Amino acid sequence: MTAILQKTIPYNPLEEKKLPGIQPLAPEAWLMADDAYAGQMAERERLLASRRDEVLQLDARAMAAAQELLHMALDTLDPGAGETARRPDGVRVPVDWEDPLGTLGRFAQQDFCILQKPDSAPEHVLTGAVLCFPASWTLAEKFLQPLTGIHVPVDSYDAGIAARVQRLFDGVQAGRPLWRFNALWYHDPALFQPRSQLAPRDRPHGSRAGYLRSEKQVIMRLPQTRAVVFAIHTRVLGRADVMRQWRAPQADGGGQL
């Protein structure tokens, strides 16, 4: 399969940041399209058609939140949408309010995870997601898991980081999204890379790898349902393009999780 690659990235993915590396984000910047939009959307369409159960899950408790999220996405990218919505590439997608995550998966370039905190629960739980581009995890293993379970087996996600992330999810305010990024070198540029949490973990590929994979991760609260959305914009770039843009030929480390 032909690699689906971006040519540029709007932040320096080689910059080391202390975990969790959270920054404020302008509200209008939560949903974007880039130069790989058409290619990524074709891959999303393929995955939703052929592997839907692997890339989409929605608990009944999250239906209202998923519909609210779809409404926000339509308002951002196609405010005049009705029975169909016009994507940034001009393709029209049917709007199905009974399948909000399926519609989102065919309309927006990002993946979306919905997390809700049950009454008296200590952590947010993953209650819905359209996840076409997993990077070494599977939706099946993480669905209906709390934040600490979602991050198994990430070594750097210790008790201190877990507490800080939970405070972020508790404190994020509607209309004031937050964001961070990660960046890792890969040999394989494929976007769909599921891996069981029980499988052996790859070592960082560093200077041996030809591709940099980076996720812009947005944390935002839905104003009506109060659910938290974790939106993931995946970019994969060839090494030469990364170094050409950011002029750091010496950077060959493993990156951030």
Automatic annotation (TrEMBL):
Pfam families: HODM_asu-like (PF11927). It comes from the Bacteria. InterPro entries: HODM_asu-like. It comes from Leisingera aquaemixtae. This is DUF3445 domain-containing protein.
